[in-house]
Amino acid sequence: MLTWSTMLRRRPRPPAKTQEQVIQADGVTLDLPRRRAQVDGYLVHLPAREAALLGVLLTHPGQIVYRPALAAAAGDIDQTHHRDLDRLMHRLHRRIQGTFGRTGP
Q1: Quick one: DSSP state of residue 48?
Q2: Alpha helix ranges (H) inside 1-105
Q3: How far is 73 from 89, CA to CA, in rounded Å?
Q4: Residue 44 in contact with residue 56, Cβ under 8 Å?
Q5: What distance in Å separates the CA atoms of residue 37 and residue 50, rounded to the nearest whole number?
């Protein structure tokens, strides 16, 4: 017997509304919703905070991005904890430079 609850469960769901945001600058392509960057043909998977930082940096190529903007992009980083932002930037730099996190050719 077909009931209302089974009809609701069977109803096709609309596709999720995701805002595709792909940022490209200086040979780096960042797929922000999927938190993946492509650098020199290698795919780099990024944690959310590192992806947000990279997104800010890529949207301002050749410009200075000050600490408050980076801290705001990274989320929970307080301005009194400068070392947290430094560590996060260091990890992002290591990922992009190829120390860890790459898969590809």
Answers
A1: H
A2: 4-10, 48-59, 67-74, 82-97
A3: 12
A4: no
A5: 11
